[in-house]
Write a structure and sequence with these properties.
By secondary structure, the chain is of the alpha/beta class. It has 15 helices and 20 strands. The protein is globular, with a radius of gyration of 21 Å.
């Protein structure tokens, strides 16, 4: 049989004996909202355990809206206008509204990227601020949570009288699910906060994909509670990036309702664990800092000792903002724990994510098909690089057997495999 999976803006195909295939795992097809703006406005009129926008009395107040960046698929160009209209209708002045880009520790967005993500009209008419995770002058310290994680938060967002959070709800290997307070941690947190969070996550739940209430989600919720979110607006999208439903209200209660709905799309029943899982990282494609998400979906669909073939374009390479990550990826989990215990780690975020990758790598041999990852870097990451899916599959079939069973994940960056 011939199978095609997403790869950047195109698709890659490969041939496989259909008798070997356990399943082709892909998000469920659901209808998009007939009128996305009306769907957003309906959610804003019916918030879960939170006031309406007019109930926030925005007249004469500073408003900050946290939004995600180009590494996320939230349709912000559709989501933002109804929120902005609602604020201004309730009396907010345009000059008092700031849109704060929750970069986490990603690189800054360019003006052109902002226009594509948020809409040219929004960029031209509102102040948009890139979060500076590594500039202490732009952050405020608010104590600690969980005994070891400092609360450093974007000062501009915290200073606003009204704080709104946005985002999209899809499976995530640290937080269980995206959305909710995750827009603040790691989105608007300081570098040390993000680093401690990632190490905490890797040490407690190295693959928490699909877990609604894991250690990291509890940490995120505690952070969001400390900072304060007045209104959450989260989308759940179809696999074509169209809005299916919008959830608005209290940052925890409305988010959990959104998780229930997102599970009906992204939670896909798997008929059995595979000897080999072929996984596209789509839509987490920009660099391997995002592309690694496919590993954690594949991990849940693969036997321990079974192999993963990850297909990920990564046009920006391994990581633009974290050049030390490639060094940490050369170590195994015990070595990384020793490095962390000694202290003085240059990039805690990178070390935390290296721990996550090492966990999967120690459970599964990993092959990679990528135009953006060099042979040298793949070797440093302890991955086996191949030029095509068929070449990788042929190599694994020789070692695991010609009849070894295969799962195929078409959208590994946003799929939660549920083993039957």
């Amino acid at each position: 049989m011939r199978v095609e999976i997403p790869y950047d803006r195109s698709r890659l195909g490969f041939d496989i004996d259909e008798r070997r295939v356990i399943g082709v795992i892909t998000p469920s097809e659901v209808a998009s909202a007939p009128d996305p703006s009306s769907e957003i406005e309906k959610a804003l009129r019916n918030p879960v355990s939170a006031p309406l926008i007019e109930g926030l009395s925005p007249r004469g107040k500073e408003v900050a809206i946290a939004v995600d960046d180009i590494t996320r698929e939230t349709p912000m160009q559709v989501l933002l206008p109804p929120i902005l209209r609602g604020l201004e209708k309730a009396g907010a002045r345009r000059k008092d509204i700031a849109i704060v880009v929750a970069l986490g520790t990603h690189r800054r967005m360019t003006v052109q990227e902002m226009k594509e993500k948020y809409g040219a009209e929004t960029v031209e008419n509102y102040e948009i601020v890139n979060h500076a995770f590594d500039d202490e002058a732009e952050l405020k310290y608010m104590g600690e949570i969980s005994g070891e994680v400092p609360v450093w938060i974007n000062k501009r967002y915290l200073a606003a009288d009204i704080r709104i959070a946005t985002g999209n709800i899809i499976p995530h290997f640290n937080a269980g699910w995206g959305g909710g307070g995750k827009i603040l941690l790691p989105g608007l947190a300081g570098e040390e906060t993000v680093g401690r969070m990632h190490v905490h996550s890797a040490l407690t739940t190295p693959n928490g994909l699909g877990m609604e209430n894991n250690h990291t989600r509890r940490l995120i919720d505690a952070f969001a509670e400390r900072v304060g979110i007045h209104l959450l607006v989260n989308t759940v999208t179809t696999r074509r990036r169209e809005i299916a439903k919008v959830f608005c209200g209290h940052f925890e209660k409305s988010h959990r309702k959104g998780v229930e709905f997102s599970t009906t799309i992204c939670g896909v029943e798997v008929q059995g664990l595979a000897d080999i899982t072929i996984c596209s990282s789509h839509p987490a494609d920009l660099e391997y800092w995002q592309g690694l998400k496919g590993l954690f979906s594949a991990d849940l669909a693969t036997k321990v000792g079974g192999a993963i073939v990850e297909v990920t374009p990564c046009p920006e390479g391994v990581s633009v903002a974290h050049p030390r990550w490639i060094d940490y990826l050369q170590y195994d989990t015990e070595e990384l724990k020793e490095i962390y215990a000694k202290g003085g780690v240059e990039d805690l975020v990178a070390l935390g994510l290296a721990l996550n990758v090492a966990y999967v790598r120690e459970r599964h041999p990993i092959c990679i098909v990528s135009d953006g990852i060099s042979d040298r870097d793949a070797g440093k990451m302890k991955f086996h690089k191949f030029d095509s899916i068929n070449e990788a599959l042929g190599h694994l079939s020789r070692s695991l057997g010609p009849d070894s069973k295969v799962n195929i994940l078409t959208h590994g960056g946003e799929t939660y495999p549920i083993v039957k």
